[in-house]
Write a structure and sequence with these properties.
mainly beta; eight-stranded parallel sheet; 1 helix; 14% strand
Length: 169
Amino acid sequence: LKHLCCGNNKMKELNECIGSLLCLEELRFEGIEIGSIPDFISNLSSLEQLNCDNIGMTELNECVEILTRLKYLRFSGNYIEIIPDFLSKLSSLTNLEFSDNNITTLPSFLGDLQLVFLYCKGNNITSLPDSFSRLSSLEYLDCDEDLIPLFRSILPQNFDNIILNIPHY
């Protein structure tokens, strides 16, 4: 089994046997109100995609830092206030989605990742770290309209080539 989607149902927890699916590349459990990412996720060394949108979590579990093959991480629609430093260890990460949380500050290490897709709308972000000038691989940006001038000033070289998705109010 390489892909498992068990999201948007009435489950109250994920079964620990999922942690034994060592060939699993994609795990989706969005919409299940379990409150956090289970520790057994760290066993999934082949995991490349993790979707934990709308699960009611207030912080990312450190078990994620072990998932070094992770390319795609979604944790939108939760109650997260801080993007933890341990995500800097995910050097394969190209797609990061954390829209609709309570994040106010973006860590500088995000500029060191090779992000191609960045989804950050619906937070309370008011500034961007200077390190974002190194986001030369960024191709798609989904952010709040008031962040556009900030991204334009920090990403002058490739800003015109980035596909923008801006919600209209």
